[in-house]
From TrEMBL:
The gene is LOC113522417. Pfam families: PID. The lineage of its organism: Eukaryota, Metazoa, Ecdysozoa, Arthropoda, Hexapoda. PROSITE patterns: PID (PS01179). This is Low density lipoprotein receptor adapter protein 1-like. It comes from Galleria mellonella. Residues 160-169 have a biased composition (Polar residues). Residues 31-155 form the PID domain. PANTHER family: PHOSPHOTYROSINE INTERACTION DOMAIN-CONTAINING FAMILY MEMBER, PTB DOMAIN-CONTAINING ADAPTER PROTEIN CED-6-LIKE PROTEIN. It comes from the Eukaryota. Residues 160-199 are annotated as: Disordered. InterPro entries: Adapter_Engulfment-Domain, PH-like_dom_sf, PTB/PI_dom.
Length: 199
């Protein structure tokens, strides 16, 4: 199902539905952290699905009991804490997240792709894998993260607006290098992958 369809359905149910889902979906219900695995691409459903499978197989091979966690999703990012001790397990800034999904092959899996700075200017990506008690919960977490991105972007726009007024100029959200017409004609145009996917 497309994200825009989910939002349209949600808006029929009332404006605050996703905030309520965000507050309850990662807390109080059984969410387990299955671990992390490298992923080949920053925003690719097939690559993410392969990495999710690798993380789940690794946990199964090690016969590892999955850690029960709480997720706090906000426009600042994701904070994962141990459900029993409340100790911080993982913090991922919203600016480091490139993709998330409610996994197609494993309906109860919520996956988040994070960019990690490597040596020099290279950046690698990893996927954090969470196993939820129900499919609906995994989908709610993915939607909550999508809305957190929207809130973060709106906050950024508001800050840019005040910056524009005070300095008279601003920084564009995305910059593209100068391209010749020949380079552009020879490349195949591809639309970017959506931030969130559902099976």
């Amino acid at each position: 199902m497309e994200l825009c369809e989910e939002w349209a359905l949600a808006e029929c149910e009332g404006e605050g539905w996703w905030r309520e889902a965000r507050e309850t979906s990662g807390r109080g219900e059984d969410v387990r952290y299955a671990g992390v695995a490298p992923v080949e691409r920053a925003a690719s459903a097939p690559a993410t699905a392969l990495a999710v499978r690798a993380a789940l197989n690794s946990a199964k091979t090690l016969n590892k009991k999955l850690q029960k966690v709480n997720l706090d999703i906000s426009p600042k990012g994701i904070i994962v804490s141990d459900a029993d001790s409340q100790e911080n397990v993982l913090s991922v800034s919203i600016y480091r997240i490139s993709y998330c999904s409610a996994d197609a092959a494993n309906a109860r899996v919520f996956a988040v792709v994070e960019g990690k700075s490597g040596s020099g200017s290279s950046e690698s990506h990893v996927v954090h894998v969470f196993v939820c008690a129900r499919r609906k919960q995994a989908r709610a977490l993915a939607l909550s993260l999508a809305h957190a991105f929207n809130d973060a972007y709106q906050e950024w726009q508001a800050n840019q607006g005040s910056s524009l007024q005070s300095t008279g100029k601003g920084t564009p959200w995305v910059r593209f290098p100068d391209e010749s017409d020949e380079e552009t004609d020879s490349e195949h145009c591809q639309s970017p992958a959506p931030l969130v996917t559902f099976a």
